Model the fold of this input.
Amino acid sequence: MFSGFLDLAKRCSVCGFDYRSADPGDGPAVFVILIAGFLVVGLAVVVEFVFRPPYWVHAVLWIPLVLASTLGLLRPLKGILVALQFHHKAAQGKLDRDQR
Ligand SMILES: [Zn+2]
Done:
């Protein structure tokens, strides 16, 4: 379903579904920020209070974890959001008068 790291292909190669109708835009990034931020900040606080390490230890621990958790979660979350929008038939908002 992807044509690049995060770019959606135009259509599903199996059924021809048009992915443009289910593009979640920046939605996955929001969830990645919330999940990875909660994980990394929580662990950093625990490590700081339990071990009181020098700052370079934080850099060595958290920079790779930030990169792995954000880059690792983006694609799966985008796939999940596309699937959820397809499943729930998400579409642009319409005013009631448009439906008459
Ligand atoms: Zn398909």
Summary: The chain has a mean pLDDT of 92. The helical segments are 27-51, 55-87. Residues 26-87 form one domain. The CA atoms of residues 4 and 98 lie 36 Å apart.
